[in-house]
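Structure ticket #2291
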Amino acid sequence: KTHQNAPEAAQLLLSSYNLKHDFNALEEWSIKLAGTNLATGDLQATITKIRDKAEFNRCFEHDVNNEYERAADCFMAYADAYPSADLLDQSLFNAAVNYNRAKLVEKSLVAHGELYNRCTTSPLAPKSLFAIGEVYRNLAVYSDASTFYEQFAENHKGHKLVERALRYASV
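Resolution: structure written out below.
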């Protein structure tokens, strides 16, 4: 017979691996726990989510190791393999950020553009459009930056970055 707190302890174990970004251990323990009598209710739901996110989470291993291009490629591969996944917007955003860190600006712009066009209802979509303007501004391509900032301000009137976008667009 298992202790009454065993399911909560199992949840805490999985949470600790998740917080440490130790996705190999997280996946390993989710598989181990799935085969036990503990895998019911909330714990079973958590195990299912972990197994569904395993491939997405593996991309963070490259990110944590400062392998930005590999991380970005991994996130893009995830987005291509799972075009209707709940994590599509996060995958594309992470790809864009990592491409930018790797100094692969064109690929970063493509990933931000894909996010904005494919995930229109995502809260990350406006951030991606603004980020495109930022990339062009940082490259000193002010006419393109202005175009994207103006589009951002027009399409996302209530967003907290509108004032900054308009200020940058006027430069």
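Closing remark: The chain is about 75% helix and 0% strand.
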